[in-house]
Amino acid sequence: MIESAWRKWRQRSLLQQFALISLIAITLIGLLLGQMLRTSVERQVLDAAIAEAEVVSRLGLQSAIGPSELKNGLNSDRIRALQIELQTDFARIDVIDLVLWNLEREVVYATDMRRVGQTAQLTPEISKSFAGKPVARITEVSHLPNISAILKRHGTVVEVYQPVQFGSLDKGNIAGVLRTAIPYEPVAQTITKETGRLYIALVFAFITLYVLLFRLVANASAELRQRADENEQQARHDALTGLPNRTQFSEVVDETLAKGIPYLAIALMDLDRFKEVNDTLGHHHGDLLLIETGTRISNTLDARDMVARLGGDEFALILHGVTDSEAALTVARRVVEALEQPFNIEGLSIDISASIGVSIAPDHGNDLATLLQRADVAMYFAKNSKTGCALYDPGFDNNSRGQLAMLGELRRSINEQLVVYYQPKVELLTGRVCGVEALVRWDHPERGLIPPDVFIPIAERSGMMHTMTRIVLAKSLAQLRDWLDTGFDLDLSVNVSARGLHDGKLSGVVKDLLQRYAVPSERLILEITETTIAADPVRAREFLTSLGEKGVRFSIDDFGTGYSSLAVLRSLPVNELKIDREFISDLAHPDCAAIVEYSIRLGHVLGLAVVAEGVEDAADQKQLAGLGCDMAQGYWFARPMPADAFTAWIRSDLSIAA
Ligand code: C2E
Ligand code: MG
Ligand code: MG
Predict the structure, then answer these.
(1) What is the Å distance from ligand 2's center to 440 Cα?
(2) Which of 6, 324, 387, 609 is the most exposed place for a label (fewest CB within 10 A)?
(3) Cβ of residue 617 lying under 6 Å from some atom of ligand 1
């Protein structure tokens, strides 16, 4: 009960709490002050009564009675004469009862004659008066026995006990005590009137004080609230760019993850060479550049997405709109491209680039810290490999600086240092070289020839694969054109990676290149691994269909390793099936032989040409021919070799022994 009242109280605004508490406090102070004033007014009224009694005593009675009369008493005639003498004086000041005691406390004179000669008890008032102090008190007399009718009628009276002195006013000179009683009614009226006026003034003063205080506090409270709002805004926003800051970014990521949203991509971005701008052009230009960077990123993003500045030249993005890693990379790439456009800062054209690392929940982590750390690793990778953007990959954690630097080199020299090797494809029945497979190598100036297995996975993760595929296609199609012109009747097989399927522009590029080198589209066979097809059959079909219509042929590479469903195989417009060399290398084993035999038959049933790859000896060649395999490729015929070597090799026609 108390707890719930307390909770309700805490829910009230500070202003409401203040209003209530100050109202209670002011009311209490008002009541206390009122009470004090009333007491003071009463005191004043009683003091006035004492002063009046003093007048009665000094001017009336004392002038009429001498000291010896007071001491020895008065006879009744003298008392009656005195009554008549004093009547007018008493009437003037409303005295309704009067008793005069001498030092023996014997009543010498009284309005009520019956009391004359009686001795008074020593009450505190009488003894105080004998000690020289006048005392006034309000007394309820109606219930007292033996009182006069007039006193009874008044009920409550003001009694004043007054020392009687003749001559000097020394304390030792006291000759008796006079008690006068005046009606309380008019006194009470005076008190009520006086206190009433005071109360009105008091209430008015306190209401004014309360209103003023309330307004003052209300204003202060409004100002405080505004400040608090401003502080809140500052606490969650970056002062320079006005973008959300790290706090807000963290909150949003935490909240989104807590909602259990199945997919959340975040990105970390940092400007390359920003320090140089700051150092050479000054902080002012650096600041303007950061503001413009924030604006450009915001303009590139979807309305649902968020860009925050974490500090320095580091920005963080929340990509609410994407649902797969490819889309996240696409957005990241768009941001990088937007920032690659020169900035115009106060008339100066500034070129800058950025690196972005992307991490995705739940694939790379389920909490903010892990996601940030992984996006950071990916960004570090993107920066070092000069690829612009990268999706986090566990492999990055082990990437040595040397490897990353190597990627940077690849990016810079991709066009010059990538070379294409060619491996012949041989018809088993005739021994004719019917085609070549283009296999990429990196001809590194210091490291020599680097095989694709080493650099392709990293190129894929860092978004370089698109460029690489285009280069291999262009170089090999140009080469095929040469060979066709020379009179070689060859097809060309080119590998397309999983990323190629996501490259919406690739089919257009292929068509353009075929046209540029005037290569009939049937001469081109694009190899896609079975794993890639199985991972995304829908996209594979789209890609195959768009180019298949133009006459380009397709081959399922590394067949046997990818678990593609037969239904998918049947429905795809492919022309060739390439049995993985894993099975060919172990043909002596009955299981492998059975798989190969089954694959050849399956291929034929589906109307596909079947190629065996990795043929390393004559026995394999013979066995495959026996099983009805159409074509073969392998070291037994020739290793992959540069174009010139291939030309020489085919001319010498040494290798193909049927
Ligand atoms: P792949 O497409 O299956 O290429 C066949 C691989 O088998 C080649 O390795 C080739 O040198 C190797 N090989 C051929 N005959 C034999 C043999 O008798 N014995 C053995 N042990 N190996 C043989 P390479 O050139 O190292 O290429 C490896 C993989 O890299 C390729 O496998 C392909 O998946 C990929 N790759 C190569 N060039 C490209 C390219 O331009 N684009 C893409 N996306 N991938 C490529
Ligand atoms: Mg291949
Ligand atoms: Mg293969």
Answers:
(1) 10
(2) 6
(3) no
Q: Is 492 in the pocket of ligand 1 (CB under 6 A)?
A: no
Q: Which two tokens stand for residue 603?
A: 């291929």
Q: How confident is the model at residue 48 (pLDDT cuts 50, 70, 90)?
A: confident
Mean pLDDT, all residues of the chain: 87
Cα–Cα nearest to 356, from 268, 466, 417: 268
Dist CA 569 CA 567 (whole Å): 5
**Can you give the pTM of this predicted structure?**
0.51
| 266 phi/psi in degrees, rounded to 5 | -125, 160
The predicted model gives 551-556 an average pLDDT of 96
Q: Which residues contact 237 (CB under 8 A, 6 or more apart)?
A: 243, 244, 245, 248
3-state secondary structure of 313: coil
In the chain, what are the domains?
13-193 (3.30.450.20), 246-394 (3.30.70.270), 420-651 (3.20.20.450)
**CA 614–ligand 3 middle distance (angstroms):** 8
Distance from residue 392's CA to the centre of ligand 3 (Å): 27
Taking only the tens place, the pLDDT of each residue in 425-446 is: 999 999 999 999 999 999 988 7
Whole-number Å distance, alpha carbon 438 to ligand 2 midpoint, is 8
Whether residue 477 contacts residue 514, with contact meaning beta carbons closer than 8 Å, is answered with yes
267 C-beta closer than 6 A to ligand 1: no
For residues 563 and 537, the model is more confident at 537
